[in-house]
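Hi all, posting the design record for the shared folder.

TITLE: backbone redesign
STEP: 1 of 1
STRUCTURE INPUT:
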């Protein structure tokens, strides 16, 4: 297990203990895990982003902090938020993060997850260029999520 995984696990545990809100100090975490502060920034930006269901606020300077909130939304609102996040194109990793967040929050079922993943993976979109895949992936993902939302 890498340092990033350990830091993410620690933050996730803090969120669980504090009802979904944690205040952290970058320097304290860096000292605790014997890493540079930019490692903390990396973990927060990649694991605790809006795509993963979190809101991050930060205040710099002496006494500054990072506040991470786990966002709890009803299924249809979370699906609409996700659709609005997608934009005109989306890469496979970002799409996977969005789908994982929807599944973890029970906004989509296991079978819906499997269907969406199979429809937008790089193998399904192989005949297209890299950019073409990302554009079509966004369109397919939005349409599938709209369908799911409308049938709930």
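Okay, here is what came back for every position:
SEQUENCE:
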């Amino acid at each position: 297990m890498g340092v990033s995984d350990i830091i993410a696990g620690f933050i996730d545990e803090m969120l669980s203990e504090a009802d979904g809100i944690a205040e952290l100090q970058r320097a304290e975490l860096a000292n605790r895990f014997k890493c540079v502060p930019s490692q903390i920034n990396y973990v927060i930006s990649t694991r605790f982003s809006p795509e993963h269901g979190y809101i991050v606020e930060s205040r710099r300077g002496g006494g500054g902090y990072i506040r991470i909130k786990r966002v709890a939304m009803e299924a249809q609102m979370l699906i609409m938020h996700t659709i609005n996040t997608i934009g005109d194109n989306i890469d496979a990793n970002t799409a996977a993060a969005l789908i994982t967040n929807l599944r973890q929050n029970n906004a989509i079922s296991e079978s819906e997850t499997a269907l969406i993943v199979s429809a937008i993976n790089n193998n399904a979109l192989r005949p297209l260029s890299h950019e073409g895949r990302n554009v079509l992936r966004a369109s397919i993902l939005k349409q599938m999520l709209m369908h799911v939302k409308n049938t709930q």
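COMMENT: The chain has two domains: 3-70, 75-151.
Let me know if anyone wants the other runs.
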